[in-house]
Amino acid sequence: MATDKTSAASESEKNAGKSADSAADSATVATDKAAAASESEKNAGKSAESAADSATVATDNAAAASESETNAGKSADSAAYSATVASDKASAASESEAKAAKSAEHADTQAQRAEDLVDSATGGSLLKGANLSDVDDIDQARENLNAVSANDERLSNAREWTAESVSEDEAAHGESTTRRAWSALRVHQAINAVVNAAKSKLLSKAGNLSELKSATDARKNLDVYSQLQVNNRLDKKVDKETTINGKKLDGDVTLSAADLDIDNAQLSESIRRMKINALLGETIYFK
Question: What is the Cα–Cα distance from 35 to 45, expressed in whole angstroms?
Fold first, then answer.
């Protein structure tokens, strides 16, 4: 019997130990839940602060929207006023236009009356200051003047030129009087022909007068001598250093009787005879 009680006590002790372990586990779980609840409370606090901030922003936005709505209302009022003013001005402009139309109509009527009066006074004559702008029929007036209208299609550049094109030979010679159609090439060829013809009549600078047809005629026109003519003339001259009886030929030479190896009496006789010879036209020979 005692043994059974001991066993029962031991079993109770074990159960008590298990209960204690279970209680410890429950306490741990409770502690963890308490910590989680504390963390959730902190997060809830932060969420509440964030919600408060959002509410503040929303309030500010609502205030700004209300102010914008007020400004929009003012703008709408201003636009409505501007529209009213514009409508009034449009009405005034329309009224002014109507008055102007009436004035123009009245002016036309007065002008017609004045023209009728002029026609009546002048018997239908044209006004000098109108410069023929008051003729009844412009086409008939042009025909009477044998004039061509500025709108005549013959004066237009839009027509196609159908005449035969000029040939290169005809363009180069430039003598035909037949009307032809000209291309840019033919115009260029005609100009070249004129230039080449002009060149054939001119002397080139590089030729240095070698292209002259007649150097003789050119010298005559310039009144100059040829080299041959100058040489021939010079061949007939004596050098200035040449002397006669010791006298150089660089000036007039005066010869005395002594230079000619004659005495004065003989010289006088020779002079006398030369004078007689000049009178008679005869030649005197000296021995």
Answer: 15
The pLDDT, as a whole number, for residue 139 is 87
DSSP 31-54: HHHHHHHHHHHHHHHHHHHHHHHH
Whole-angstrom distance, CA of residue 269 vs CA of residue 205:
67
Low-confidence ranges of the chain (pLDDT < 50): none
Q: Which residue has the tokens 């741990």?
A: 28
Residue in the block written with tokens 């109108």 = 130
Q: Buried (b) or exposed (e) across 41-51, using 16+ Cβ within 10 A? A: eeeeeeeeeee
d(CA 180, CA 123) in angstroms, rounded, equals 53
3-state secondary structure of 243: strand
What's the burial of 210, exposed, middle or buried (CB within 10 Å: 0-12/13-18/19+)?
A: exposed
Q: What is the pLDDT of residue 273?
A: 77
